[in-house]
């Protein structure tokens, strides 16, 4: 690790501890040459997940894209941004636990809707109306009846 003060490449780790905010390791270091101390953060760079679209084109899973869609679904609902960020993290963790680095867009949509139904039913209907491309009121009624029947 290069010293930010003198540029020497010889530094030593004085203290290491987990940094809970972003799941990284915080390290206090000291330069062996100039004896100044500084802090570094070490974080694992995750392997990207690819979403396979209906047209078979692959794109990198985009947390922000999913978060924006969920934000639209929860407008004027009692769901805060932290809950949505946790939700997206849970979706990503669920995908990673399958040990597959690719997921079909339809499978991703079903996973999101399954989890969203538990978080907020109205947000679920809103999200489903876009995801399933409801074309009329009958589509809404059919989806709501399916929810009522499953309870």
Automatic annotation (TrEMBL):
The family this protein is said to belong to: Belongs to the NrdR family.
Described purpose of this protein according to its UniProt entry: Negatively regulates transcription of bacterial ribonucleotide reductase nrd genes and operons by binding to NrdR-boxes.
Keyword vocabulary terms for this entry: ATP-binding, DNA-binding, Metal-binding, Nucleotide-binding, Repressor, Transcription, Transcription regulation, Zinc, Zinc-finger
Keyword DNA damage on entry: no
Residues of the ATP-cone domain: 49-139
Cofactor note: Binds 1 zinc ion.
Keyword Repressor attributed: yes
InterPro entries, per database record: ATP-cone_dom, NrdR-like_N, RNR_NrdR-like
Protein name: Transcriptional repressor NrdR
Necessary cofactors: Zn(2+)
Family annotation (HAMAP family): NrdR (MF_00440)
UniProt zinc finger (unnamed) residues: 3-34
């Amino acid at each position: 690790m290069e010293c930010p003060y003198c540029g020497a490449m010889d530094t030593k780790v004085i203290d290491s501890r987990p940094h809970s905010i972003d799941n990284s390791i915080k390290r206090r270091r000291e330069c062996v040459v100039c004896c100044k101390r500084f802090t570094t953060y070490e974080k694992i760079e995750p392997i990207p997940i690819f979403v396979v679209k209906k047209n078979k084109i692959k794109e990198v899973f985009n947390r922000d894209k999913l978060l924006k869609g969920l934000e639209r679904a929860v407008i004027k609902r009692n769901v805060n941004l932290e809950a949505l960020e946790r939700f997206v993290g849970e979706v990503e963790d669920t995908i990673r636990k399958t040990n597959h680095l690719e997921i079909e867009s339809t499978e991703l949509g079903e996973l999101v809707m399954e989890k969203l139904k538990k978080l907020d039913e109205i947000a679920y209907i809103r999200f489903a109306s876009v995801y399933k491309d409801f074309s009329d009121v009958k589509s809404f009624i059919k989806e709501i009846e399916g929810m009522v029947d499953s309870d």
